[in-house]
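Ticket closed. Logging final result for ORC1-type DNA replication protein.
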Amino acid sequence: MKVTTKLEDIIESGLSESSIFKRREALQPEHIPSRLPHREDKIRELTLIFRDLTTSIDNTSIRVVISGHMGTGKTVTTKSFGKAFKDKLSERGLRLEYVHVNCHRQRTLYPLVMEIASSLKLPIPTRGLSVQEAFKIIHDYLVKRNVHLILALDEFDYLIKTASQEDIYFLVRLYDELSSSKRHISYIFIMRDEQDLSILDRSIKDHIIRNIIRFEPYGSGELKDILTDRVNEAFQPNVVQEETISYISEIYGRDKGGSGNARSAIETLEMAGKIAEIKNSPSVLIEHAKEANSRINVEAGEVLDEIPILELHPLIILKAIINLHNRLKVDSVPMGKLEKEYADLCAELGEEPRGHTQLYEHVRRMKLMGILETQQSGKGMRGRTTLISLAVPITGDLEELINRTMRSKIDNREEPL
Ligand SMILES: Nc1ncnc2c1ncn2[C@@H]1O[C@H](COP(=O)(O)OP(=O)(O)OP(=O)(O)O)[C@@H](O)[C@H]1O
Ligand SMILES: [Mg+2]
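Final structure:
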């Protein structure tokens, strides 16, 4: 006899308190966790750089650049530092404001300045003022109240690429422009790639690059600690299995060929929880994490489907890219280096390497298939060259599949008579 559950019961159980999540908000990108495993040294570095504020809060201007790949904790670490540092100074009777603005949303200075004013709860006329005038009002306000402002400009790369040089210059050389002797504003410039600063004039650049703090991609052990904290905050006790946490950490850990991106790891954890909930499972298992990963990486899945249909030489090209990635720890490789690595691999495999034109053709075809991405190298490298990267993260699974497919093509190749 088939047992069917009454519809009302299904809905009733779905409406009742989640048996998986305790506080799902703790998995949202805006959530600021109470601890930041493996970023304690960065908080310390920031504290040491800003320590001078404790002795001369009304006449110091400090500038720091924070750089690092996606999801390496730049935003969350800076915000946490700003808040805690403000509280510590306040305990010492010093007045500090910390304002965090995102330049991705505000591509010109005007709305940016307005956002700063509104964060400071400073009413300023929204019309008829130039950026310079508005900034002067903010500065006068800080001087009058003897408040120091740490201004964190997040995703500063966007501002560099979209705002005019004059605007950037104005922002970072504020004191000369305002001809004020008192210094009340410090800056934290947050960006993915500090190379982007090279498009700025030397004089602006020198002004910005006094201190650089680099955030490295996370390794799998570090991600495991970060995820374990989130599991404790967001999930019901003993619901997420430890193997599940390890599995997710290994997908994204830099040491395992992953991106080192904590955001993707947390997203995968949340998705795994949702899948467990839908399946009415009492715990979050590896299989849920696997499914979460493939849902999140649909494209990666599609690429995996295409590998087996590739011919031998395109596979050797992919293998060469992975070798270079592992050896040089870079995401994209210049065409010249790729050609050399490919030729070496061909020699190892006893294959005649294809010529330059045919190699390009293979790369072009794999780009159309969505397997590879190409990009022209920017300034800074001698000449212009094509940079090639895989369109999906290089995981152990991908590497294994490429090796396996390559081997089977080699075993089945027709020996020349
Ligand atoms: N050390 C850490 N401890 C706890 N959570 C972390 C840590 N590092 C990053 N996270 C979490 O990972 C996610 C991504 O971090 P964050 O937004 O700070 O990255 P980012 O470096 O600013 O990335 P992007 O360049 O894409 O802006 C956030 O949810 C953040 O809370
Ligand atoms: Mg960020």
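Residues 29, 33, 36-39, 68, 70-76, 192, 226, 262-263, 266 surround adenosine-5'-triphosphate (ligand 1) (CB under 6 Å). No further action required.
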